[in-house]
Request: fold
Amino acid sequence: MQGALEKAAILIEALPWIRRFRGEIVVIKFGGNAMVSPELQESFAEDMVFLRSVGVHPVVVHGGGPQITRALTERGIASEFRGGYRYTSPQAMAVVDEVLRTQVNRGIVERIAEVGGHALGLSGQDDRLFSGVRRTALVDGEEVDLGHVGDIVQVRPDAVRAAVRDGLIPVVSSISPERGVESSLLNVNADTAASVLAVALRAAKLMVLTDVQGLYRDWPRRDSLVSSIGSEELRELLPTLESGMIPKMSACLDAVDGGVSKAAIIDGRLPHSVLLEIFTPEGIGTEVTPEDNE
Ligand SMILES: Nc1ncnc2c1ncn2[C@@H]1O[C@H](COP(=O)(O)OP(=O)(O)O)[C@@H](O)[C@H]1O
Ligand SMILES: CC(=O)N[C@@H](CCC(=O)OP(=O)(O)O)C(=O)O
Reply:
């Protein structure tokens, strides 16, 4: 009996959060390091189907960094990161496109179907969803070339909205056509793509799954985990952060600056991390809010 009462209490605890997010779009970035085992892929797919079943509209944007690195190595292409972004030659771009669209995207769509959901795989090329321009990175104050790496400058979210209306879970690859350049593709950091899409969709929340508990103010000191940070404080902290965290925290900051009410970095190695973050009052990981909460 005690066990049954505890289960009821857990369900009731979720009620205000279900009401808060019902009918809203939530963008979830599923990082390559958070999809490392079949069990984690399955629990992620279950979370997406759960959200959809209680009336929340999940939109997935996925990464696949480790999977891309593996495929490039197999083809004898070395991976080099500059300021947190993969230097992407034309040859590497073809591999990035293939891995993200045919391997990672299809895998997530299939996992969702296996647990009873209906997902639609999309990429920036589909229905001109994204349009991008090339970007560089700053390394030690110097501007460096990144090849076929870009930022999204225009989003046409009609196809994503239509899928949501049809009860589907859109699963989006972070590839963008290059604006004004025929058949040229750009490799977009998936955190950045998720943020841009969240703003365009006026999402209620952006969640970024990764392989750490959250943002550490003084990385790698374990006692420096940040549970909540305001946008102004994050803006000041940003220049002090290291490689992988720069696009991630910039993505959260751009999302809240762009009108998304909340962004969160959560530990994707924890099964059902999305449900824990969205449906429990304390949440998990690091939450970014629009105002400075100091
Ligand atoms: N301040 C920080 N807080 C948390 N993680 C950090 C920090 N600085 C660097 N990192 C590193 O960033 C990594 C996450 O970035 P990344 O590997 O790009 O993730 P993903 O593949 O999920 O996009 C963590 O595993 C950690 O090693
Ligand atoms: C420009 C750039 O760096 N693009 C990323 C795109 C994939 C990604 O972001 O994957 P994760 O989220 O798993 O890291 C890359 O090539 O690795």
User: Anything to note?
Assistant: The first strand starts at residue 25 and ends at 30. The radius of gyration is 19 Å. The pocket of adenosine-5'-diphosphate (ligand 1) is lined by residues 31-34, 63, 65, 210-212, 215-216, 219, 241-242, 244-245, 248 (CB under 6 Å). Residues 34 and 181 are 33 Å apart (CA to CA).
